[in-house]
Amino acid sequence: MRIIKAGLLDTIQDDGRYGYQHLGVNPSGAMDRFSARLANALLGKELQGPVLELHFPAAQILFEEDTVICLTGADFHPVVNNKPIPLHHPVFIPANSLLAFTRHQEGARCYLAVWQQWELKPWLNSYSTNLKAQAGGLHGKCLERYDLIPFQKSSVTWKKAADTQVLPWKANEVVDTRKEIECLIGSEWYQLTPEARESFLEQWFQVTHESDRMGYRLAGKPLEVTRQPPMISAAVSFGTVQLLPNGQLIVLMADHQTTGGYPRLAHVSKAHLPILAQKNAGQVFRFRLVTLEEAEKKIIAQYQYLKQLQLASGARLQEWMAR
Amino acid sequence: MVCGPWTVDFLKSLTFNTVNAYHPYTIFPLGDTALTIDFGDQVDEVINRKVLRFFQELKEANFPFIKDIVPAYSTVTVFYDAIGIIQHRPGKVAFEFMAELMEGLAQEPVEEITDTGTLHRVPVCYDDAFGPDSAFIQEQKGITKQELIALHTETTYRVYMIGFLPGFAYMGPVAEKLAVPRKEVPRQQVPAGSVGIAGRQTGIYPLDSPGGWQLIGRTPVPMFNKEDNDPVRLRPGDSIQFYSITADEYAHYQGGAS
Q: What are phi and psi of A211, to 5 degrees?
């Protein structure tokens, strides 16, 4: 597949680069892990494998070979050879077709998986692009015009279709647009004054324009802390909600630093991070505290859904290819 | 007040406060897929040695459900695969399983921990062109350039932790006479190799990056190389001695750190 026109910020990401945070190498990975895994699941592929993460305006991509693709996450109104195609469905695409995105409908990040395996070299066991280290993905960079992501040769012979064709299965569970984001209490939660704790849970926070793959800065009523000694640096996580000295919050996202020294008031639950990752600047939401049990149940439920979908989709795709 | 089920009692039930002769520590969740073991919440060489010993032991144990282990000044944070644990141990909260496992390991007696880190000698050119904050520190502290260089090079520093950027080592302790707070407005771009000071810490920027440390010089030795199988030069527990080189030596520098 070849990039005909570059997008704003299109990178290859997978489920993250783990095992190197003690060296300061952060995990990166897809912002909306659910949608990234969902795209792979609908093609029967390994859930954690690499996908293309697209922001609007997104790249135009020419497929030089016949393939089956799947788009998930944000709706940028995708078209193949000028005809709209749906999200959350596998779609057969004949060779020399052009995929473009015409309108920002909803969400912040769209994920593209293709049936073939990409010919890419992992860096430190992951395909995720680390823009700071300029490593991983394709040459460690955002995709640019004329970039080529080659497909590995496949020995599978399969029956193609004459034209673009939407295959007859889809995802029933997708990332929703709810405005209540579940989170868990952080170790410095009780540094907030009782009024600030109440305010944290009751007020609406707005995603500001200073929000990117590193973190979401939120705008809200400033939160006050009781006097506390300064914190020394310790590890932080994707989803950690830190209190900045000005009383505002930042939620650390996929490209966060490995360590930080601001109070960790809360952590967005893994199951709800995808909902937050699909919010754009200007949108508002509230936090809701949940227990570890509740949070873990949702992690499991999402995983089981994806695993079942992956198995079923893999079988159906094989069937379709041999029809 | 809306506090959900997160009452103080509930939090306590999840937080293990244990004190024993060897390792007083606290364990708390860092979200729903990680936990942190804190050995003392301060910058202290003995505590940091415990941290690194615990990190090594966990790494060597090679648990399949542990994804990442991050030592810092006084803490070790463990990122785990909640799904793997719950499937392996149904009916149990993954955090509880992990916290109990960590408790067991943290209670193993540790006799005398000694550092096993490597000693690196790192050349630094302290010219003003490479150390744009050098003059500010001299003025603040009432010292000459020669005194600044002597103060920065006479201490053997310990790498307490790596964080912030790939390969960024937090080293210390810096002499009180050199300790200055970080800049109020960080620089947009600090060149790779820049050597800086923040409080009692000193560090080397491994990559071009925004940054707020007060810059006093630059080393020609790369601290990060993505092409290497082991891309990061320094490790927590290593020792660092800086030595001063001229601009000419900097320009013609060939070797690595020794």
A: -130, 130
Structure tokens at A159: 């029956």
- Give the count of alpha carbons within 13 A of B171, CB side only: 29
Bridge partners (DSSP) of residue B98 are none
Residue B23 · residue B107 · CB < 8 Å: yes
Amino acid, res. A42: L
Q: Is the ipTM value over 0.90, yes or no?
A: yes
Is residue A152 within 8 Å of residue A118, measured between CB atoms?
Answer: yes
Whether A258 contacts chain B with CB within 8 A: yes
Query: Rounded to an integer, what distance in angstroms lies between the CA atom of residue A73 and that of residue A125?
Result: 25
Which chain B residues touch A200 with a CB distance below 8 Å? Answer: none
For residue A319, the surrounding DSSP H or E stretch is: helix A292-321
Pick from A138-152, B8-22, B237-251: least confident: B8-22
Mean pLDDT within A45-71: 98
Instruction: Give the residue carrying structure tokens 């301060």.
Output: B42
Residues of chain A found within 8 Å of residue B11, distances taken between Cβ atoms? 185
Q: Which of A85-99, A173-187, B4-18, B37-51 has the lowest mean pLDDT?
A: B4-18
3-state helix, strand and coil shares in percent for chain B, rounded to the nearest 5: 25, 30, 45
